[in-house]
Amino acid sequence: MSRHPSPSPLITAAHATRAPREDHDLGLSHDLARLEAGRLQRRRALAWFAAVAGSASSLGLVACGGGGGSDGSSASSSSGSGSSGGSTGSGSNNSACPLIPEETAGPYPGDGSNSANGSIANALALSGIVRRDIRSSIAGASGLAGGVPLTLTLRLQNSNSSSCADLSGYAVYLWHCDREGRYSMYSSGVTDQNYLRGVQTSGSDGLVVFDTIFPGCYDGRMPHMHFEVYRSQALASGYANKLRTSQIAFPEAICQQVYSSATGYNASSSNFARISFATDNVFSDGVSSQLASVSGSVSQGYAATLNVGVGA
To answer: How far are the Cα atoms of 25, 118, 131, 140 from residue 221, in angstroms, in the given order?
Structure first.
């Protein structure tokens, strides 16, 4: 599975399916090899089942057996692992609001699925984690993530509904790296911080909104954000309850605009020049359903929007 401020009312739908890769503290080559192997294994299995299903259908056969593959919700307790991708879902998948691809949570989810600094890392258990503005640290930490302001608006939609009904009362946990490419709670220099992590609950219009910064580009990945969807805020207490894990991509022209002129993104410019959607391990199989629509400027800040299909 891919080139790593006020809410906009316009949300464009776009849509695809993926897999893992990322780390820069535990050794990128180590994680690349391990995550890529898992991705290929899942893809081969899915392709085999699809071929069998297609053959059975053409012969008019009735298939029997359990359905569904892994949704990647199980995770290792080691600090270098995280949930992995593998598209899943039940019911129909409306082409107008397709199911958002399942992606790796990566090595830095902070959702209770792995450890950091010798203890389980779970930002979802922190007091104050339910918040719109995620630029500052909480629960006794005082760090602030600098960078170009970005307001992210996600619309949660029922991909099993012919009308793409908005999903109300669902929770989204969002996290991403800072402008230096570091993940709070995990990366050297910010292990005592928890900024750029937060939870919001969708309203009757299916919208969740986060005030954050434009993410940096670290070596080996296109710029991106991670998120998990939960059926309710009460269930957003740990990775075991999540419905979906995916990632958000950003238009190349906008990334270039930020990295070439914004203060503090020095390393991002050179990292971005060495990566593309075609070579990114997560987005290389297609990025349309995860590519946010972005407007704004470095001086005024940006607004990003994306429709997220969820199998309710």
So the answer is: 14, 26, 27, 31
> Candidates 2.10.25.10, 3.40.50.10490, 3.40.50.300, 2.60.130.10; correct CATH number of 28-310?
2.60.130.10
**Model confidence, pTM:** 0.74
The span from the CA of 53 to the CA of 57, in Å, is 6
Collapsed DSSP state (helix, strand, coil) of residue 123: helix
pLDDT tens string 180-216: 999 999 999 999 999 999 999 999 999 999 999 999 9
Amino acid at 223: P
Q: Is the dihedral of CA 81, 259, 293, 136 positive or negative?
A: positive
Confidence band of 312 (pLDDT split at 50, 70, 90) = confident
The CA–CA distances, whole Å, from 190 to 27, 82, 143, 233, 300 equal 18, 19, 9, 27, 27
Q: If you write DSSP's letter for every residue of 219-280 in order, what string do you get?
A: TTS-SEEEEEEESSTTTTTSGGG-SEEEEEE--HHHHHHHHHHSTT-HHHHHHHHT--TTT-
Contact between 103 and 291 under an 8 Å Cβ cutoff? The reply is: no
